Amino acid sequence: MIKKTILFLTLLLLILSCDSSDESEDVNVDNFDRGVLLSHLADNIIIPSYQEFSTKMSDLKSAGQTFVTNPDQANLEAFRNSWLQAYKNWQHVEMFDIGKADELLYYFHMNVFPISVTKIEQGIASGNYDLSDSNYHDAQGFPALDYFLHGVAPTDMEILEKYTTSSNATVYKAYITDILNKMSDLTTKVSNDWSNGFRDVFVSSTSNTATSSLNKIVNDYVFYYEKRLRSNKVGIPAGVFSSNPLPEKVEAFYNQTVSKELVLESLDVFKDVFEGKYKGNASANRSSFQQYLQALDRDDISSAIINQLAVAKTQLNALNGNFFEQINQDNQKMTQTYDELQKAVVLLKTDMLQAFSVNLDYEDGDGDG
Amino acid sequence: MVTDRITSIEKYLKLKSKTATLAVFRFLFGLMMFLSIIRFWNKGWIETIYLEPNFHFSYYGFEWAKPLGDFTYVLFLICGLVSLFIAIGYKYRISIIIFFLSFTYIELMDKTTYLNHYYFISILSFLLIFLPANATFSIDSYLRKREYSSIPKWTIDSIKLLLAIVYFHAGIAKLNSDWLLRAQPLRIWLPSKYDFPVIGENLLQQEWFHYAMSWGGAAYDLSIPFLLYYKKTRTLGFILVLVFHLSTSFLFPSIGMFPFIMIVATLVFLDDNIHERLLNKVKSKIKIFKKIKTLDFYDFKKIPKSAIVSIFAIFFLFQFILPWRYVLYPDELFWTEEGYKFSWRVLLTEKTGLATFKIVDGKTKQFFYVNNTDFLSRFQEKQMSCQPSAILEYAHYLGNHFKSQGHKNVEVYVDSFVALNGRLSSRFIDPKVDLYKVKESFSHKDWIIPFSSEIKIKGI
Questions:
Q1: Closest approach of chain A CAs to the CA of B26, in angstroms?
Q2: pLDDT of B34-53, one tens digit each?
Q3: Do the Cβ atoms of B211 and A16 come within 8 Å?
Q4: Which of A57, A313, B232, B280 is the most buried (most CB within 10 A)?
Q5: DSSP reduced 3-state for A115
Q6: Cα(B78)–Cα(B89) distance, rounded to whole angstroms?
Q7: Rounded to the nearest 5 degrees, what angle is found at the Cα of A281, between the Cα atoms of A275 and A287?
Q8: Are B191 and A296 a contacting pair at CB < 8 A?
Q9: Angle at A186 between CA A184 and CA A191, to 5 degrees
Q10: Position B300 confidence tier, pLDDT thresholds 50, 70, 90
Q11: Which residue of A has its CA nearest to B36?
């Protein structure tokens, strides 16, 4: 009996190994190098993106300084223009919430919207505010600058008065300077950290554990799409999570005209990262989530994602550039856009995450499938 | 003929076995349970699983079993304490009863944590209530100043039978086309262990290896009860038990204590004499056991034998039938999960789901979506998304919640998708059905969209 069983099991193993090793030649998934994926992400996408954004950020800061020193119409226009350029470029880095960015709560100092006007105005009236305090996350960053540039008063003339003749003019200007300093300071820290060592840590952490770079970046990437892109930019203002639409919650609410531009930028970058498109000048060793899926023999998922992102983009393109108007006039188009964005969430969160089988960034109990 | 059978049953019931085997089993069982409780506590899971969430998923009919606030810690404390009592054999009968009740209550508190091996421990501890596991090597025997060298053979056989049922059904459950012909879900899981030392980058990536593991696993489960039962193959059986369970433990750390519990439990198949020699060695080193009078045979005096025979007969009949209840339901078992639990289907499916709930005002048709993280832990959300009964229960919870918030004409719909064993995701629940109006029951849930993948699942 014992001999027979051993014989049987050995035979079974032999048969199986001979039988399927013939076909495994071309379906071998071993050839996917996650280290290459990570170094491509770091060297050719993330680091160049941060470098580019740092430039835009310092442009914005100097435009702001010029405006604060000399608040006239021309400098206001220049400041607004730099703000928009930097805001658009911010969409290229917001999703990389890892390392220093995560540690310093970078995003929370850069793009929490809607802002609390009460908080800002009270801070200015009392001269007492602290942008490092988590209570002030919704009173700084691009959305607060949006308010100072476009929303603090109805007309340009009145806006300029705030910074020239109003009794609180000095504090208004100090607040702007503080926001810019905070943003630029954090940007420098995050960007430098990538160049000074974090890149190597990031690239070498290829394992499949809750804390490895690969798992964190995949999680961050999917989270970014679901929460920051789909929900914050489209879903929440369209009212899909509330009884009524909340048009005042659109991104860049005080500017009114660029919400669509920002979300399109964000969607394009999201797709570029999926496909591994270069940001920098290098051209070798391209690797991406898309290629990872293909290596796992799941072209079906990767093409479904690409297609769905394209459908969502078409839907977005059909919207009014001014989301506030769009929601007030025809919110159905807005919720339809949300629906198309949502379909990609399904593909990312169920299909892609299942294929990668990444350990999630939490451990909550045992499982036996 | 009938009388023949009855006499042969009576004969069997009179067969004797060494008490040592059951005592060793009791000691190791108590110890493993104690370690499991400590591990669970130590990981902070009492907090994250039972105390932090506002809502808990219940088993149908057991909605009354809920976490007890801070007393949940007391519950775990009691469960851990009686585990130790079981190990040392102190007030064994009452300890094992309390263990069975407290452990089962813990499992009933939230369905999210369902594991086959938790259920196994519940039913095993139920069985142990009726067995004289403290007849030797126990504080009880020291206190009574007497121990027994032999006990009825059927007491030990009943544990063996339960283990055989577990393995055999686990094996049967693997006889399906996903497991055998597509090597799913191992084909998803094993390559993702690419960071595993030595074999991660090579062996675990090979397709033939996924098939070998799938077939080997099925063969292991189906044959191991027999290999362990026959003396000639027992050594091979144990080597396989060690290799199989240790490798699953290394590869799938998330199955927790299960492999070790199974390794320890299968020791019950070892020859009586081995257990006795081992126990005598240990006992000779402990002073208190020297003054105990050894009696020959423990027989059930307090409980009538016929009562025990009928309890065990019903118990095992139930264990044989329960895993097959799925045949009463239409559609694909892995998809609907109707009759999936309590059936030893271990590591059989990789399901990922996404369920977005929509609260609609039935009159105005105004609606909004729910953010699941407002109500559920991520673990709960993950488990809920691919289990229809949990989706339904959560839908009712949401309905009640928003109704109490003053929303009118509340209807609850779900937009849900599931990807099963490497198939592309597809719609899971009928989005047009108001789940708030649907009642939970044991009948087929016709609001589950039928499994429509071209890659069918065939098998038992």
A1: 25
A2: 999 999 999 999 999 999 99
A3: yes
A4: A57
A5: coil
A6: 16
A7: 30
A8: yes
A9: 95
A10: confident
A11: A366
